[in-house]
Amino acid sequence: MKRIPLSLILIVSAFVIQAKTLVVYYSYTNNVHNIVLELTKQIEADIVRIEPAEKGLDYAANNYAIGSALISSIRNNPTDAAFYPAIDQVNVNLTEYDCIIICAPLWWSNMAAPLQTYLFHNGEAMGGKKIGLIVSSASSGISGVEGDARRLIPEGDFLSPSLWIRSSQTSNAASMISQWLKTIGYDAMSGVEDIRTDQNIVKYTIFSISGALVAKDALSMQNLEKGLYIVNGKKIYIK
Ligand SMILES: Cc1cc2nc3c(=O)[nH]c(=O)nc-3n(C[C@H](O)[C@H](O)[C@H](O)COP(=O)(O)O)c2cc1C
Q1: What is the DSSP string of 25-52?
Q2: Domains of the chain (ranges plus CATH)?
Q3: Whole-model pTM over 0.85
Q4: What separation in Å is there between the alpha carbon of 15 and the centre of ligand 1?
Q5: Whose CA is nearest to atom 7 of ligand 1?
Q6: 28 lines ligand 1 (CB under 6 A)
Q7: Which tens digits make up the pLDDT trace of 149-199?
Q8: What does the pLDDT look like over 51-83, one tens digit per residue?
């Protein structure tokens, strides 16, 4: 019987292929935008911002009348595309992503209407993917937004719990996001491993993306910068 070297078993078990994450969000008064800026300081992700086709609308005027009308229209006709507000075209290939983090403002206890439009048209293509949800509201609880996400992405593999950041907590978003990423096990799920802390492995052969040998023992590994590397033909991300 052929024997597999122990070092190879250790290396293969320690490295996983990096999964790809997309952050999709809408933001009217930029609270969610600021949350996304903090989030993407902490994870590697592509970002898509949804924009309504009709520009310059004041969703907050007259006690949020326009926002209220848009939400009522969707609530009364959730399966009809004509009742969702038009949005600008979004060019993103969802098949490239394993994880999608949706960052949404809450409007009248529901997901902000323009983001619902995007998910109405693309939720099916998100089936089977890991779905994370971050919601910003002034004070209302987020269960209605979670319900919208599950309705619009019926086959999504939702990460639990969602993260609720009140608008008054936006400046604390960094620590709330960092705690949330730990709670949902984001690093393990996305394939990000801090392999430098793994004491079991003593032998490495790590190449840069351009093919240069950059580390082959624990000591040289300590000096590697954050980034993408190739280990035995697999992509890994060192943070
Ligand atoms: C049309 C509209 C309706 C809203 N409805 C609620 C609500 O029912 N409850 C609440 O707590 N906040 C409500 N808000 C406040 C937003 O959820 C909150 O300000 C959020 O942080 C906005 O995110 P943004 O700055 O990214 O747009 C509403 C805001 C708008 C514009």
Answers
A1: E--SSSHHHHHHHHHHHHS--EEEE--B
A2: 6-16+192-238 (no CATH), 21-190 (3.40.50.360)
A3: no
A4: 42
A5: 108
A6: yes
A7: 999 999 999 999 999 999 999 999 999 999 999 999 998 776 554 454 454
A8: 999 999 999 999 999 999 999 999 999 999 999
